[in-house]
């Protein structure tokens, strides 16, 4: 049985009347009118985490992209349309990795052709019935502002490292175009809502045209299983942070479950942006990179897309391909010409002119290649519009003319420019004949031209005969590729070049021409093994496998949405981990008689970002109010030194303090400091201090705090990426040099700390509970609040003490962490403001009780 929403569409497409019970819930099928979305927030009642739809018989994947994999042609009589699959579309090719028998695929996207509103209903029916495609119809003006002006003139240049430093260098940010982009993403979301079964379906969104779509889908279905793959580069944080809507895009992408990139560099830049702009950190577990985002793990996938082997091999077998190869052999090889091949879109990032200048340099420096080497440059039409495209065309034509005039001979032109669209078999024929393929883009997300070239050079038996190769002749190929394209890391046998260095590219061309055939054969074999196994089906299967793994625990987590507009995100928590209710804890506080309260300081009572770390008068007043209550024992547990804590909390007469993670403690202000261990031998500091000093000198913004029993290296004010990298190195360095010392080396929030072994905050909790038991004050209320991993020791002690000698089984125990994150606490509060509000509430209860005495 298909999902409820999808069956509505099937009924409509087939002309059957929809069932009575479903009519009230059906979403309008055709979105023909689109305006600017002024309010991004739907009715809160619409934000749900599941839908009571019945499950589908087969696994379903909804693939969403700007364009459907469909070709549309107007009928000769102009009455209606004919449609066919676009075999060149990646969206269609990736089905190879899904298994046709096991998976049903629905496509959502736009058509390349504009469909008149009066025809949209019929077109939708045909596409849904025949191709399982759901078209998104956009008014021409909205589409132009969304695609040609925002995507192509603002996002695309920026993602390719082009800043709009002047109006001539890419489009300046325009808020109205951004609104058009958001509006289109919302329309796409509405179309997906018509067909999705949120309990079962996977949604896979493609590329930068739809980067805010994940937010709209996550808002409607909190547990939607959602993947996103970016096919363009992701720029470094220095470039990306110039975008005025940088945080909106990052947060929208983080509403996906899995985010895919072609290369590690692109993923690294994205993670760096998340760190610098959102304060998020990532970690790698068993080979998987993940970001913790409000309790959800957003996984990062790094895998370049491949080519469709079946399509290429079928085109290689076409008779017309053989004919074209024979023509090219006659035109070039038989005349003693060596073909170098370039295949690029005519846009500013493909580096066509730089390639031509490198050829010119080759012919100047190596006259022996004149009359022999021919660069065939296939220039595909640009996908965008604008002044920059016309400039590239003019520059390319002028450079070709200059080179041909300078080095041309009767019957010989060093550059052959083909600027008319070629059929695929013709391009394949050029690949098969070319001795070397040059891909020298200055920036490109992936670029599959080298992969197509390698498979074409492998050829088949029939082409081998046309090329004059024996049945057992080893194949060979040569690649010169730019360092700045996504496929470069996977082609280790290629000659990698900096396309801006014309001399280096010219030298690479010469090296490729001079290289021994045996070396070319080895490089070709290596590339062919990779390309033939890492095809588009492998890529799609691997991505969806990881998406399924990432989403497997959706059903067992409690989810709810917070935030407005594009700041919306979903909080996902373990069912046993919940927010501490003020009413609940105040009620427990009132009805209990003996209470133990343990409080961390930094990050709990005092925000981490505060410059002045000393307690406010308000905090002192709250602590004194709690301490005056004879039913309370209040302990402040901190990593700070006892000297600092004594000074800061001198007004608190009855406050217990544990310093340096509990190594020193006192029960009240006038009591003597005690130690949990015999006085430590700190001779290890003579080893650790010079190491920390070295890292402090090389890490701007880092400091060393020398405590009585511990040394702390703090990098809170350092560059977050460099500081984190240095902290990892320092941790390894200290663990190595202190391996035989009685100390532990721990990494905390922006710190690396060395302290005596066995010292932890859990000891303070044990000491407090045992002291109260000795005084026959067995607590029936325990509150413990902290913000980082060092506080987990306290949480563990108090939760494991329930029903033990130190706590009765009826005791009210509250272990609470700050922020929603993995913790041994069972409760959380969002920030220090909520912590202070809670403590103020408890202090008010104590003050009221005190006033009644």
From TrEMBL:
Spans traversing the lipid bilayer: none
NCBIfam families documented for this protein: HAD-SF-IIB (TIGR01484), T6PP (TIGR00685)
Organism of origin: Nelumbo nucifera (Sacred lotus)
Stated name of the protein: alpha,alpha-trehalose-phosphate synthase (UDP-forming)
EC number annotated for this UniProt entry: 2.4.1.15
Pfam family, one: Glyco_transf_20
InterPro entries, per database record: Glyco_trans_20 (IPR001830), HAD-like_sf (IPR036412), HAD-SF_hydro_IIB (IPR006379), HAD_sf (IPR023214), Trehalose_PPase (IPR003337)
Keyword Transmembrane helix in annotation: no
Phosphoprotein as UniProt keyword: yes
Family according to the record: In the C-terminal section; belongs to the trehalose phosphatase family.
Gene3D superfamilies hit by this protein: Glycogen Phosphorylase B, HAD superfamily/HAD-like
Top-level taxonomy: Eukaryota, Viridiplantae, Streptophyta, Embryophyta, Tracheophyta
Biological processes, Gene Ontology terms: trehalose biosynthetic process
GO molecular function terms noted in the UniProt entry: alpha,alpha-trehalose-phosphate synthase (UDP-forming) activity
Listed CDD domains: GT20_TPS, HAD_TPP
Catalytic activity: D-glucose 6-phosphate + UDP-alpha-D-glucose = alpha,alpha-trehalose 6-phosphate + UDP + H(+)
Keywords: Glycosyltransferase, Phosphoprotein, Transferase
């Amino acid at each position: 049985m298909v999902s409820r929403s999808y069956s509505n569409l099937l009924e409509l497409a087939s002309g059957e009347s929809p069932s009575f019970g479903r009519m009230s819930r059906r979403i309008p099928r055709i979105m023909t009118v689109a305006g600017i979305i002024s309010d991004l927030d739907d009715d809160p009642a619409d934000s749900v985490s599941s839908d009571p739809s019945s499950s589908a018989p087969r696994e379903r994947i909804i693939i969403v992209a700007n364009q459907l994999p469909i070709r549309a042609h107007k009928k000769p009589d102009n009455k209606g349309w004919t449609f066919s699959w676009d075999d060149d579309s990646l969206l269609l090719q990736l089905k190879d990795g899904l298994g046709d028998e096991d998976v049903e695929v629905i496509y959502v996207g736009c058509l390349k052709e504009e469909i008149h509103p009066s025809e949209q209903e019929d077109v939708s029916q045909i596409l849904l019935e025949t191709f399982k495609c759901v078209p998104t119809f956009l008014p021409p003006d909205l589409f132009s502002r969304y695609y040609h002006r925002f995507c192509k003139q603002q996002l695309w240049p920026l993602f390719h490292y082009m800043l709009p430093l002047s109006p001539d260098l890419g489009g300046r940010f325009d808020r109205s175009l951004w609104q058009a982009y958001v509006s289109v993403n919302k329309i796409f979301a509405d179309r997906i809502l018509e067909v999705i079964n949120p309990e079962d379906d996977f949604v896979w969104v493609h590329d930068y045209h739809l980067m805010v779509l994940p937010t709209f889908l996550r808002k409607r279905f909190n547990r939607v299983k959602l993947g996103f793959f970016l096919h363009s580069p992701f720029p470094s944080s220095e470039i990306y942070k110039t975008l005025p809507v940088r945080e909106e895009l990052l947060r929208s992408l983080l509403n996906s479950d899995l985010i895919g990139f072609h290369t590690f560099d692109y993923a690294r830049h994205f993670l760096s942006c998340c760190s610098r702009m959102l304060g998020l950190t990532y970690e790698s577990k068993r080979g998987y990179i993940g970001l913790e985002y409000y309790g959800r793990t957003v996984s990062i996938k790094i895998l370049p897309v491949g080519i469709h082997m079946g399509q290429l091999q079928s085109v290689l077998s076409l008779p017309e391909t053989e004919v074209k190869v024979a023509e090219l052999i006659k035109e070039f090889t038989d005349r003693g010409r060596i073909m170098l091949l370039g295949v690029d879109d005519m846009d500013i990032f493909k580096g066509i002119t730089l390639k031509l200048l490198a050829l010119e340099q080759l012919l100047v420096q190596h006259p022996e290649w004149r009359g022999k080497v021919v660069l065939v440059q296939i220039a595909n039409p640009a996908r965008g519009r604008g002044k920059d495209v016309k400039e590239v065309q003019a520059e390319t034509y002028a450079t070709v003319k200059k080179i041909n005039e300078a080095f041309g001979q009767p019957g010989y032109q060093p550059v052959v420019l083909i600027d008319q669209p070629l059929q695929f078999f013709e391009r394949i024929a050029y690949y098969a004949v070319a001795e070397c393929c040059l891909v020298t883009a200055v920036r490109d997300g992936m670029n599959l031209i080298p992969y197509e070239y390698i498979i074409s050079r492998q050829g088949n038996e029939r082409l081998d005969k046309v090329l004059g190769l024996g049945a057992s002749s080893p194949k060979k190929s040569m690649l010169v590729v730019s360092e700045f394209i996504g496929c470069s890391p996977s082609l280790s046998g290629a000659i990698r070049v900096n396309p801006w260095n014309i001399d280096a590219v010219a030298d690479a061309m010469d090296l490729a021409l001079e290289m021994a055939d045996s070396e070319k054969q080895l490089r070709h074999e290596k590339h062919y093994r990779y390309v033939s196994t890492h095809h588009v089906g492998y890529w799609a299967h691997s991505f969806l496998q990881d998406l399924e793994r990432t989403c497997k625990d959706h059903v067992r987590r409690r989810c709810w949405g917070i935030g407005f507009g594009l700041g919306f995100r979903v909080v996902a928590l373990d069912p046993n981990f919940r927010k501490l209710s003020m009413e609940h804890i105040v009620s427990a506080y009132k009805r209990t008689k003996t209470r133990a309260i343990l409080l961390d300081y930094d990050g709990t009572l005092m925000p981490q970002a505060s410059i002045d770390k000393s307690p406010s008068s308000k905090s002192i007043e709250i602590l004194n109010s709690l301490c005056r209550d004879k039913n309370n024992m209040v302990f402040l547990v901190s990593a700070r030194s006892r000297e600092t804590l004594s000074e800061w909390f001198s007004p608190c007469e009855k406050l217990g303090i544990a310093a340096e993670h509990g190594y020193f403690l006192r029960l009240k202000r006038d009591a003597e400091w005690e130690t949990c261990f015999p006085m430590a031998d700190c001779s290890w500091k003579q080893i650790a201090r010079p190491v920390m000093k070295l890292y402090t000198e090389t890490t701007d913004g880092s400091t060393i705090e020398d405590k009585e029993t511990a040394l702390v290296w703090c990098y809170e004010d350092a560059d977050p990426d460099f500081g984190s990298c240095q902290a990892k190195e320092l941790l390894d360095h200290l663990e190595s040099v202190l391996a035989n010392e009685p100390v532990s080396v721990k990494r905390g929030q922006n710190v690396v700390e060395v302290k005596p072994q066995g010292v932890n905050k859990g000891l303070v909790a044990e000491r407090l509970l045992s002291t109260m038991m000795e005084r026959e004050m067995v607590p029936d209320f325990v509150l413990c609040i902290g913000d980082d991993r060092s506080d987990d020791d306290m949480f563990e002690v108090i939760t494991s003490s329930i029903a033990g000698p130190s706590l009765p089984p009826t005791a009210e125990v509250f272990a609470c962490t700050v922020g929603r994150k993995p913790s041994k606490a069972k409760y959380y509060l969002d920030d220090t403001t909520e912590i202070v509000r809670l403590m103020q509430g408890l202090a008010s209860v104590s003050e009221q009780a005190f006033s009644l005495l």
